[in-house]
C-alpha cells in the first residue's frame, strides 16, 4: 500500500472511531472548535426548549442530541451563540417561515363549495393532496360559511339544470 493510501485509510479509521465513541463526526468537532461538550455541559445535557435529556434523545432517535447555532452562522462558534436542542425542537427552529404557513386556507372558497355540494372531507383532502386532519380542522372553522353555501346549493343546481336544458335544445 502506498504511503498516501495508507494515510487516507488511517484518517478514515480515526474518524470512524471518533464518531463511534462520541456520537458525532470529527469534522463537526473541529467546526465547533471543541465547544460541543462545553455547550452540552452548560445546558445540563438537555434540550433547552423541551427538556429532553441527551440519553432520552439517543434512545428515541438513535443519534446524539444536537447543537444549534442561534444566529444560523456555523462559523460563529461563541458559546452564547450555541444551544442544545433535540431533533424535534431543532427542526422547528430551522424551518423556513413559508413552510409553516398553512396551505389549506389558500383554497378556502373551493373547499367550501365542494363541502357544500356534499363532497366528503376525505375526497376534498385527496383532491387537494392535503391531510384529512388539516381539511377537517379548517372546515370546522369555516362551518358557518359552509352552511350558508349549502343554502345556495339548490338555487345553483336549478341554474345549472336550466343551463343544461337550454344547451341541449
From TrEMBL:
GO molecular function, one term: zinc ion binding
Keywords: Endonuclease, Hydrolase, Nuclease
InterPro entries for this protein: HNH, HNH_nuc
Chain segments annotated as coiled-coil in the UniProt record: none
Annotated ranges, domain HNH nuclease: 34-91
Name assigned to this protein: HNH endonuclease
Pfam families (UniProt xref): HNH (PF01844), HTH_23 (PF13384)
Hydrolase found in the keyword field: yes
Amino acid at each position: 500500500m502506498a504511503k498516501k493510501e495508507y494515510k487516507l485509510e488511517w484518517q478514515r479509521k480515526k474518524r470512524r472511531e471518533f464518531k463511534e465513541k462520541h456520537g458525532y463526526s470529527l469534522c463537526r468537532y473541529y467546526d465547533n472548535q471543541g465547544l460541543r461538550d462545553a455547550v452540552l455541559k452548560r445546558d445540563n445535557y438537555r434540550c433547552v426548549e423541551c427538556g429532553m435529556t441527551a440519553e432520552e434523545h439517543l434512545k428515541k432517535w438513535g443519534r446524539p442530541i444536537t447543537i444549534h447555532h442561534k444566529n444560523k452562522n456555523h462559523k460563529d462558534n461563541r458559546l452564547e451563540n450555541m444551544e442544545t436542542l433535540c431533533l424535534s425542537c431543532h427542526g422547528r427552529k430551522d424551518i423556513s417561515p413559508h413552510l409553516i404557513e398553512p396551505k389549506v386556507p389558500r383554497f378556502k372558497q373551493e373547499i367550501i363549495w365542494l363541502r357544500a355540494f356534499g363532497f366528503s372531507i376525505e375526497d376534498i383532502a385527496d383532491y387537494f393532496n392535503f391531510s384529512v386532519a388539516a381539511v377537517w380542522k379548517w372546515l370546522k372553522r369555516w362551518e358557518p360559511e359552509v352552511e350558508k353555501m349549502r343554502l345556495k346549493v339548490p338555487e345553483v343546481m336549478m341554474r345549472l339544470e336550466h343551463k343544461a336544458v337550454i344547451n341541449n335544445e
